[in-house]
Amino acid sequence: MSVRPIILENIVRIAQQQKKPLAPLTDELPLLESGLDSLCIAILVASLDDSLGVDPFDRDGDVAFPVTIGDLIGLYEHATA
Amino acid sequence: MPRPERRSLWDLTETSGLPPRRFVADATGRLALSALARGRTLAVPPEALRGQTVLLSSDRQLPAVAALLQLDGIARRILLCPPELAPAHLPAVIAEAGVDAIVSDGTGPAAHAAGATRTIGFETNVVSDPGMPGQGEIDREGPTEWLLFTSGTTGRPKLVVHTLGSLTGPLDDGLAVASDAVWSTFYDVRRYGGLQILLRALLGGGSMVLSQAGESVADFLARAQASGVTHVSGTPSHWRRALMSPAARDFTPAYVRLSGEVADQAILNSLAAAFPRSSIAHAFASTEAGVAFDVRDGLAGFPASLIGQAGGKAELRVVDGSLRIRSARTASRYVGDAQRLMDADGFVDTGDMVELRGDRYHFVGRREGIINIGGQKVHPEEVEAVLNQHPAVQMARVRGRKSPITGAIVVADVVLRPGSGSLDTIRDDILEGCRRALPPHKVPAMLTEAAGLEVAGSGKLVRRA
């Protein structure tokens, strides 16, 4: 199963809860312009850890921090592959 | 020659009168104070322990209470060993305090402690024979040091030095209590909060119903009601659990006291609704700082006017956001530890953080419990206070969850009241209440339902995950 819809659903839900207006979600959209603040992203990472069982940031060594929505999805696709 | 002033626990108990109705009881035994006056429960005459450092070890509290009555003023030091002390800590405790003898009924953490110490038996049955001196005839000139264990949940507990004088200081607070009061507490009386209640019972001419490890809240409340308990204390966590029990409906205490944790408005309101004829007070106390004050107006927090008042029984200061206390009720020092208990001015830093809102200070949490969310500080207790306001929430625990993005995020476990339905149907409503009352970083990012939340032997919510 693809992680993409799960990530997008979570982004929409968290933005609603946090009352953050979201920009249209495209792969090219920079995360920092999406409307999500760092607290939203922190909640997203924890939610995905619970639903997917992975936290791609919880690794020894360097993790390239995702810049765009596409980067973020790629990071999880790679981690769950 | 005039007799020296009689100030020991036994002498003060005897001074308050020994009618046959006075007792100390637990779930399985009952000690009549008038019977103890003519006999003893120790296997040796108290005289044999004069000047010695004695550790009391038993699962039950009743034998320890009897031993305290017999040994205060005679022993050099008495260690009140709580039942959950890890046996691994015992050798260090025994060495540090210089324990000469373990007084035990064969149970408790030190029952099988190895070492050069001797073990003296005791029980709850009073032994009496005609040649034995009555308790009142034994010289108890003390002062005995009472060593209490701090209630920290990690690492080895520290030993805090009190005397009967520092422990009984708070009793002089103007609370009017009938002399036939029956006191009780959810606490173990070997903890500071429980010991306060025991001393109020013994010195005030009353009786005492002890809690018992392993007994359900319902059974304890039923036993308290059957024993005629009028005055009862516990932590807010104890009380939240008690209110979940149907047995609370039949319980009719005259006085309900909270201490040991932050008493939020929700628990004060719930208790007022459950016990409409009771007076309800919440006290601020810690093992090190003693009782600083109690609050009787039914409102959370305490009046700002208490800060900086001179000439009171306890002086209060707020420095760097934490409450500091100076009074004759504080412990004098830690045993065997270089760490100072007081600052240069004699104030004890409680580590409890307060915040001024209007004309009242509110407790926002422990300094060491702070959750740091991207540099913004959150006290779990302030979020719990908001969660507890929701009608469906019986009890809440808030903690930090590690986050690679912000260092931590706030998550919460809640116990729902019976009949509240599933959390999924009310999660949004509960969180909406949090969003109205709290800035976004303090609102729990995740809310999980728990069947129950663990309460430690100290009566406080267990906070480690």
Characteristic terms for this protein:
A: mainly alpha; Non-ribosomal Peptide Synthetase Peptidyl Carrier Protein, Chain A; 3 helices; globular; B: 465 residues; Rossmann fold; GMP Synthetase, Chain A, domain 3; 8-stranded mixed β-sheet; 26 strands; 21% helix
Give a verbal description of the structure.
Chain A: InterPro entries: ACP-like_sf. The complex is a heterodimer of chains A (81) and B (465). Chain A is built from 3 helices and no strands. Chain A has helices spanning 4-17, 38-52, 69-80. The N and C termini of chain A lie close together (10 Å). Chain B has 465 residues and is of the alpha/beta class. Chain B folds into 2 domains: 9-357, 3-Layer(aba) Sandwich (Rossmann fold), CATH 3.40.50.12780; 370-449, ANL, C-terminal domain (GMP Synthetase, Chain A, domain 3, 2-Layer Sandwich). Chain B has 11 helices and 26 strands. Chain B has helices spanning 9-15, 33-36, 62-71, 90-97, 164-168, 192-203, 217-226, 236-243, 265-274, 380-389, 423-437, and strands at residues 23-25, 30-32, 40-42, 53-57, 77-80, 101-104, 118-127, 145-149, 159-163, 182-185, 207-209, 231-234, 255-258, 279-286, 290-295, 302-303, 314-319, 322-327, 333-334, 348-357, 360-366, 371-373, 376-378, 393-403, 407-416, 446-449. Chain B is globular, with a radius of gyration of 23 Å. The chains are: A mainly alpha (81), B alpha/beta (465). At the A-B interface, helix 2 of A face loops of B.
* Level-2 CATH architecture of the largest domain in chain B: 3-Layer(aba) Sandwich
Percentage of β-strand residues of chain A? under 5%
Adjacency order of strands in the biggest sheet of chain B: 2-1-11-10-12-13-14-15
Sum up the overall morphology of chain B in one term: globular
Q: Count up the domains of chain A.
A: 1
Distance between the termini of chain A: 10 Å
Percentage of residues in helical conformation of chain B: 10-25%
